[in-house]
UniProtKB/TrEMBL annotation:
GO terms for biological process: glycine biosynthetic process, by transamination of glyoxylate. One of its GO terms (molecular function) is L-serine-pyruvate transaminase activity. Residues 30-316 form the Aminotransferase class V domain. Belongs to the class-V pyridoxal-phosphate-dependent aminotransferase family. Transmembrane segments: none annotated. This is Aspartate aminotransferase. The keyword Transferase applies. It holds the Pfam family Aminotran_5. InterPro entries: Aminotrans_V_dom (IPR000192), Aminotrans_V_PyrdxlP_BS (IPR020578), PyrdxlP-dep_Trfase (IPR015424), PyrdxlP-dep_Trfase_major (IPR015421), PyrdxlP-dep_Trfase_small (IPR015422), SP_NH2Trfase/AEP_transaminase (IPR024169). SUPFAM superfamilies: PLP-dependent transferases. Its cofactor is pyridoxal 5'-phosphate. The lineage of its organism: Archaea, Methanobacteriati, Methanobacteriota, Methanomada group, Methanobacteria.
Amino acid sequence: MLNFALGPVMSSDLVLKIGSEQTPYFRTPEFSKITLENEKLMKEMLFADEDSKVIFLTGSGTSGMEATVMNVFTENDKVLIVNGGGFGQRFVDLCKLHNIDCDDIKIDFGSCLTSQMLEEYDNKGYTAFMVNICETSSGVHYDIDLISDFCRRNNLFLVVDAVSSFLADYINMSEHGVDVVITGSQKALACPPGIAIITLSGRAVDRVNNNSCKSMYFDLKDMLLNAKRGQTPYTPAITILLQINARLNQIKNDGGVKVEIERTTNLANDFRNKIKEFPFEVRCKCLSNAVTTVHSKEILDVNLVEILKNEYDIWVSTARDDLSKDMIFRVGHMGDLSTEDNDTLIDALRDIQKRGLF
Ligand SMILES: *Cc1c(COP(=O)(O)O)cnc(C)c1O
């Protein structure tokens, strides 16, 4: 199996090996040491300030999105959300569900964010800003510098969902003034699904501690208290935390986060060059390095996602054909993939083309 889907992704042999071992008991100093190291490594890779804190929540990425909405906002907030696809809409739905006042900047599916779009919202009384920095449903990467400037000049609390973007696109919490970064174990961290990672700035930690959260499991105050000694209130996905530890150390030993981002960028560029021989197009000018969204010049009557999976054992992600009929698939560049793997995918597409299917 060769997996170019957008999560879960291919894991390294080291991560796979840890997954095959017995699950250890976790109320031990040895396990606390590992989770404290995970926190330190996450802070390093996100360039977070000294007073920031990291929470490892057992749940998929969406649990991190929901816990954030429930713990950092109150009825006094007015949140502005970038909404250009499925994940932007999820933030809108979460705010509505939890009675947080919000508006969304609606962006056409697959379009980039511009400074003009943001300028309309200057000085409008907002207190916070939420963005899925890579809107995985379209592959669009929103410009973090533009967003960072906008939030600074309007004094907004900035929440970034970097679930698919972490380790693929550069983000620097200190430099960009980001208050919360959410990511998940099954995207570029290349571990199984089950852990959401929420990194909070000092300002965000204060918001959490001064808020009252109407949930026991999602109460981040309780998590912060336990995290001081490297523990969680409830049994976490222990094995995944061990796998995350191995993966983060692997990245660090291979040169750090910038080297990993460069590796992902090269993989994305390699694929985008190779796909040019087909009657396909990569239209978006602001794609994340995590994903390439591929359009067809003509509407195809074959389902390439199904053919690749059933006949070649290659997995790519489906497209939002409810929004864009000529979008054929999304190819991920996250996880344990190489340029040789790109060749395997290209060879399969050549074969399908030779068979006359497109
Ligand atoms: C994958 C993803 C999530 C989390 O989805 P889950 O299925 O809950 O893990 C959140 N935001 C973005 C941008 C994603 O790509």
